[in-house]
Amino acid sequence: MVNNVETVQGREMEMLQEYLNEFGQQIEILSRQMQMIEQRRFESFAAIDTLKELGENGSDVVLLQLGGGASLRVKVTDPDRVLLNIGSDVVVERSNAEAIDFLQDRTTEMEAMIKKLSANINEIRNQANEVAQRIEMTYRKARSSQKGQ
User: 100-116 burial, b for 16+ CB within 10 Å, e for fewer?
Assistant: First the structure.
């Protein structure tokens, strides 16, 4: 009879540990997604600031990121015409003000996504804590049954 109890407890512990590992992986994936969205949000804020500055001051010299750490100083000839990627690699031309509005709306959407991801992470952490407590209880129960023998 004792072997059956130990086998059941062992299987339960393995199953609970697997759940705990899966929760950890889910938290890691959601945290990475949140970091990526946060980075895009900061990039959008920088773009908004730059567009506002260009709109107020007219043509100006800006740094153009080429990639690989290389940049050029370029003179903006038409600061009111902005090429805007609206998603799925679709690029449209908009006025400076329209581009700013679009980017501000996008940052608002990203903030909502970040809040939702954060709530999901907290929910998963709560579930992981419950599983960890259950593992601890099962472990204590197993130890107390071994001491009683």
Answer: bebbeebbeebeebbee
